[in-house]
Amino acid sequence: MSKIREMLPGEYGLLDEFLYQAIHTDPGEPRSPRAALADPSLRAYVEGFGRAGDVAVCAEEDGGVVGAAWARLMRGYGFAGDGVPELAVSVLPGHRGRGLGTALISALVERCSELGYPALSLSVQRSNPAARLYERFGFREVSGDDREAVMTLPLGGRDEESRGEAPFEQARAAALRVLTAPGLAGRVYLQGGLVPWVAFGRDSGRPHGDVDVSVRLVDMPTVRAWLATKGLYNSALDSLNLGCNESRGDFGVHALIDGVLVSFCPFRFEGCNLRQRNAALAATDGFDALLEAVVPGVAERDLFKMRVLPDGTVVGCATLESVRAAKVASGREKDAHDVAEIDRIGFDPARYARVAAAYAVMSIECIAHEE
User: Fold this and answer.
1) What percent of the chain has pLDDT above 70?
2) Which stretches of 84-193 are DSSP H helices?
3) Cα–Cα dist 207/285, whole Å
4) What is the pLDDT of residues 256-303, one digit of tens each?
5) pLDDT at site 162
6) Per the domain annotation, does 170 fall within a domain?
7) Sorting pLDDT into bands at 50, 70 and 90, what band is 164?
8) Given the DSSP bridges, would you call strands 211-216 and 260-270 parallel, antiparallel or unpaired?
9) Hey, is 72 helix, strand or coil?
10) What's the burial of 30, exposed, middle or buried (CB within 10 Å: 0-12/13-18/19+)?
11) Domain range enclosing 60
12) Mean pLDDT, residues 87-101 taken together
């Protein structure tokens, strides 16, 4: 199992090896010698990493770092303008072909967007198969020559509307439509930053990108049936129809409900281990991938509960403790607002400690991805 997380400062020294592994070699050609890393044009990607503006995420397996994606403001091979950081990504041999590169790029793109960068850039040799992966993410060529291309991906900085986020009231209304629907009520559980605001009837005062809903795996057919009867089902947003889903495993379905993207993510328990699934879709994320998070040693009652809203409506929600633990673990600037609201409301410290400990050892695996 792989865990995608921010790289720690003490691990930045590993970037030398990842930089070497990122050097592309055409089939039949010998690998570049390690002495190539002494070239100042390559050293610029890792030298003194950790300065202001540097961003790095990594993939951890069995306590070791096996992949990394990082970005920094520099005039490298992929320079596309002042203020646009250049991306590099690398996975160690023996760990490739399992979607780690896709997961790493996705995490880095999200982090750079949160930090307000307007775009990301990169340089890729035209013979490198990774060029197709970058295109699926939305990178587009802006310059280049016969051998290499410079590509950029607009991020939109902090402009929430440019990322299609909905005002709080619109997101809240879409969430309550799902949570109170006949046949779904009691079977679906609201997740994410909306929880404290919906549960206690206050306006978050910020837009929300989507509505996340957890559903027991056995109840996913009921969800699809409800979407179909309401004319909301779109087969292109269903994980069952992805080309990479050869096993036809259920990794959820997305739907546009009253102008808000709602993600229905199936979960199941194996003893005290939670397995939560989700799908990244080309239509919403720029690529197709099937993802499964495993949270060991956690009880269902610590994660989900039925809650009475201020108006007396009863809906399923994630516990405040699980939302807070997830928000704290993410470290995203926008999540601090939701954490502060949970702290204002109050939460169970003992439950929070149990959930936070479980999330600390959570792993995320990319089960399959678009080739």
Assistant:
1) 96
2) 100-114, 130-137, 168-179
3) 19
4) 898 889 999 999 999 999 999 999 887 677 678 899 999 999 999 999
5) 35
6) yes
7) low
8) parallel
9) strand
10) exposed
11) 3-154
12) 87
Q: DSSP characters for 288-327?
A: -EEEEEEE-S--GGGTEEEEE-TTS-EEEEE-HHHHHHHH
In a domain, 159, yes or no: no
Q: Do 178 and 137 fall within a single domain?
A: no
Last residue of a domain, one of 154, 188, 216: 154
Secondary structure class of 366 (helix, strand, coil)? strand
Cβ-count burial of 85 within 10 angstroms (0-12 exposed, 13-18 middle, 19+ buried)? buried
The answer to which of 2-6, 9-13, 295-299, 350-354 has the lowest mean pLDDT is: 2-6
Q: Which residues, 6+ apart, have CB-to-CB distance to 312 below 8 Å?
A: none
CA angle 299, 187, 293 (to 5 degrees): 45
Same domain membership, residue 105 and residue 252: no
Q: Which of 97, 126, 154 is the last residue of a domain?
A: 154
Q: Is residue 133 part of a domain?
A: yes
Cβ(315)–Cβ(178) below 8 Å: no
Residues 112 and 209 reside in one and the same domain: no
Q: Are residues 237 and 350 in the same domain?
A: yes
Q: Is residue 356 included in any domain, yes or no?
A: yes
pLDDT for position 157 = 43
**38-47, 152-161, 336-345 — which is least confidently predicted?**
152-161
- Tokens 């996913």 locate to 220
The closest alpha carbon to 151, from 116, 115, 126, belongs to 126
Residue 100 and residue 235 in one domain: no
pTM for the full model? Answer: 0.65
